[in-house]
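Consider this:
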Amino acid sequence: MSSASKRKNLNKMEVDEKDDESSSSDEDLDGINPDAYTGNEEVQIDFEGRTPVDPDTQGISQLLQRLFLRAHINCNQMADLIIAQNNVGSVICQVDDDEIESETDDMVEEGTVFGITSVLNLSAKKDQPSVSQLRTYLLDRAKSHAPEPVLEQLSNLLDIEEPPHLGFLINERFINIPAQICVPLFENLKMEIDFAKTKKMKFNFGILLLLVKFYRKEAKKGQPAEDNYTNAEDELLSERAKFSFEWSVASECDSGMAGNWLEGDAVMTPYRKLLALDAKQFPQLIKDIKGYINNE
């Protein structure tokens, strides 16, 4: 089977109808509280994971833009790099079956990319424009927000030239797609990385960096601050990171965090956190994520 038609099995998932409409726009989702929706209508969608192909460039780029916000990173070029990694990585798409009339046909544009799970080699591809921009972005944020020992560790990782290399793990998807979907995506990615290494491709990683999104309800009236991760699995990964640092992106959002709130909600501030994960522990992390999500 060719890479363009390669499909990966995923379970049927439920998404919020309102989420489909908002997420398919170009507006940044950091201006939206993921718990703010008051409607209870659910829509059944069959998802499939498949290898990214050229028509997915714009959809992947939009997901990356929501992660990086106003950072000077060429997301289109990064999307092209992800697609060029033949058979490594997956996009989440709606199952395309012309014989079945879907209840979402009028809601979701054909070819919509609902998520992307992949990895980029920050060492071997450091001369690629988007990777160079990403490396600069992460280092600049570390200089401004990370403790000195963390800045030193990140700087040393970015200086690596020989394998095992430094990888950048990408795990982005629409809000309200259930977290269970990440398990088969991570499992597929692990198998694809292992296969690529047998072919002497440059996927031998020592550390995987992962940039995650979360919202913080600031401490108030004696109550501690409360963090809410956009992807549920990121909370566990944050706990298992070798090191991490975080920063607020409130000033980079197109809209403030004060829109469609449930009654009694406090304003939540959008953050980014960079995690450093031990690549050797990735298989165990996948198992732990599965148990963690199932117990939620």
Q: What stands out?
A: Helices lie at 17-23, 57-68, 75-84, 129-145, 148-158, 182-198, 233-240, 282-294. The chain has eight helices and eleven strands. Residues 98 and 105 are 11 Å apart (CA to CA).
